[in-house]
Amino acid sequence: MKGEKKESKISEGKLPLFFLILIGIGIVLLITDYKRNLSVPNSSSDEKVRIEIAEGESVTNILQNLLEKELITKKNYYYAKVYLRLNGLDSTLQAGVYDLPKNLTIVELIETLQYGKDEEVWVTIPEGLRKDEIAQLLDEELASKNFSSEEFLALTNDPAFIQTLELGLEIDNLEGFLFPDKYSFPADIDTKQVIVRLIENFKAKVTKEYTYEDIILASIVEREGYNESDRPIIAGIILKRFKEGWLLQTDATLLYPLKDWKHPITQEVKENNNPYNTYKNIGLPPTPICNPGLQSIEAIWNPVETNYYYYIHDTDGNAHYAETLDEHNENINKYLK
Predict the structure, then answer these.
(1) Could you tell me if 147 and 139 are in contact, meaning their C-beta atoms sit under 8 angstroms apart?
(2) Reported pTM
(3) pLDDT tens across 92-107, in order?
(4) 79 with 106: CB under 8 angstroms?
(5) Which CATH superfamily hosts domain 48-117?
């Protein structure tokens, strides 16, 4: 009996410690989730929403409005409140009318609301756009008298200007280096300043040593791949064909001179004589064919090696690979016809 009482007391002593450990783990997980969510976009959509903050409006009302407009999620509503309180920012949000994209992080959203109306314009540049597409997008989004899409395109082909950007390569074309990302531009930003921002972001994000070939290959992978799963495999296939002296035969390179990613790949297109036709010319095209994101660049640095030499995507975007031309043709007949 005495032994049982002693064992019971020991067990009772262990219980509080067990619960304390559980509480500690819970707190650590909560803090980790909080910190992670500060830098995660609230949405994948770059749709812009107009929101108005009245003079003297409470933080609770502002956050509730952001929630209703889908600029923050329900969970991030509470994390935003904590972030404001911990950093003493409750009174820093400025009255005004804002056009805000849904893909801002908590930190980006709050920083924007601290600067007031018309101080900055958010622009999302998607991965895989050509420089002419980026010029058009910026022209529409910035609507600034200081920005010119014509000047933008001229500067991206100006060797003297490109030299001042210190990319570490002897190039005369900025295609491939206009880094796709989410940007906050001053409303009165000029054309040169926009390009400098894009290039500086490229240099900040692409930290590993790279070659011009890397960027050309990454641009092809960007347009040929569909997601983070297939791009490293496709990168491995393209690199293998390139190193073994095969024709790359990538459809995306055919479309670059046409300036139309949706143009049908006809036999006439495949027979077109231009340096970007990888169905006729062995090796790489002379320049990147788009501006790739970091995922595609890293796929070139870390390709998945396989026995495959061919790939296609079906109408649902699923990749199908083949080792031989016969297998490739079977995939075409099975998934594309």
Answers:
(1) yes
(2) 0.82
(3) 888 888 888 999 999 9
(4) yes
(5) Endolytic murein transglycosylase (3.30.1490.480)
Distance from C-alpha of 213 to C-alpha of 216, rounded to nearest angstrom = 5
CB contact set of 131 (below 8 Å; sequence gap of 6+): 152, 153, 156, 174, 175, 178, 291
Sign for the pseudo-dihedral over CA of 70, 74, 79, 82: positive
pLDDT category at 29 given cuts 50, 70, 90 is: confident
Show me where the domains of the chain are located: 48-117, 121-205, 212-306
DSSP string, 187-227: TT--HHHHHHHHHHHHHHH--S---HHHHHHHHHHHHH--S
Query: Strand ranges (DSSP E) for the chain?
Result: 48-53, 96-101, 120-124, 182-186, 310-313, 319-322
CA–CA gap between residue 6 and residue 138 (Å, rounded): 76
Residues in Cβ contact with 92 at an 8 Å cutoff, skipping those fewer than 6 apart? 114
- Beta carbons of 252 and 225 less than 8 angstroms apart: no
| Numbers of helices and strands, H then E, in the chain | 14, 6
The CATH number that domain 121-205 falls under is 3.30.1490
Q: How far apart are CA 134 and CA 198, in angstroms?
A: 11
Question: Locate tokens 């049908």: which residue?
Answer: 264
Q: How far apart are CA 71 and CA 41, in angstroms?
A: 10
Contact 291, 208 (CB under 8 A): no
